[in-house]
Structures are given as C-alpha cells and as structure tokens.
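Fold this sequence, please.
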Amino acid sequence: MASNPVHLVKKPAVQKRLPEFFREDAMKEYFSSTSGVMEFGSMDAKRRRMIVSLLYNTGIRLSELLSLKRNSMDFHRRVLRVVGKGDKTREIPLLPSLCDEILLYLQSQDSLKCADTSDGSPLVQTSSGRALYPMFVERVIRKELGDVGGGIGGRKSPHVLRHTIATELLDHGTDLNSIKEMLGHSSLAATQVYTHNSIERLKKVYTNAHPRAKNGGKNGD
C-alpha cells in the first residue's frame, strides 16, 4: 500500500475538563458560621480557619501556602509576598479584614510554648511549631468545607478554592490580566479557562446586553 489511509482520520476532540469551584453562597456560609473562631475558638479551629481563609482570599497554590513565612506578610502595605512557580515572586493585596484575621491568629500561635516566632518561621504552623505539610492541609479543607450546611458538594481541595476565588473575581467584573497576576499564571491562556467556567456570568451578560431582555422579552422598543 503506497499510503496509509489512517492518517486521514481526524482524532476526536478531547474536551478539557473545566475547573471545579464552590458556590459563592456556600463560601459565604462557611465564613459566617466560623466568624467568631479567631477570637473564641480553639487553637486547632483557628488554624483550620486561617488555612481556608488564606487559600480562598488570595488564590495561592498549596505549595505557596506551605512556603509562606512570617516575613512574607507586609502589614503596613497590606500585601502578601508569594514565591510561585519558577521562584517568581509576586505580591497579592490583602483585605483589611484578612490582615486583622492573620494578626489575631499570630497572637494565638505565638502564645504556644513551642511556637517559632522568628521572621523566617512558617506563617501558619502545626501545634508543634513546625511547617504545614500537604496532607495536613488537604485534611483541613475536607473537614472545614464538609461541615458547612450539610457539606459543600464536589471535590474539596486547596486547588478548588483557588478556582473558586478566580471564578468569583471574574463574575464580579475583575479583568483577566489582574486575575492572571494574582494567581501567578505565566500566560493569559491559563487564566482564560475561567471565562468558560460560570454559566451565571453568561446569564448576566445575556440579560444586560440582549435587546429583548431589556424590555421584558417584548419585540420593539
């Protein structure tokens, strides 16, 4: 046979799996139900809430959370310095409420006998004053989000929290370049996947822009 007819057959398109994310109202419920933890909760509860809060509010990767040091925080400027992939450093702006939460957590952590309070020590530590490790954080996320309103459905992981805040920021009008910088993506293509992620955003755009949607679905003016 002079030629191979198989090369004419096109491979079926492989559909990329879209990032999973939690519902915005579910995350609001979590933070509402744990709002008093930093002042009145146990040290373990404070640590769990701090882990979820950092991952959700900043969108950092699990590896980036594990590498955070006390001197990664700049409370005066309200920014978090993160060392990401390729040892690239970026700064993430922090809400005043998150800065207050981190300060409350550090006060409690520093009161522990075995706490490491040096500048280069882990920002969030285990009860023995050591750095967090991946399985520890994974367990925390499953426990914390599994307890909300009967449990948040779907896979629970640090990366899903990263997808969640990226999707929420996009839904609320944040431009892709800003989200790219916050997440530490090397290219805009990696961030653009979130534009396909939320049907709610598509519904809002459709409702606000479509001529018939503006007049209740009636034809004419």
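The beta strands are 73-74, 79-83, 89-93. The chain has one domain: 24-185+201-209.
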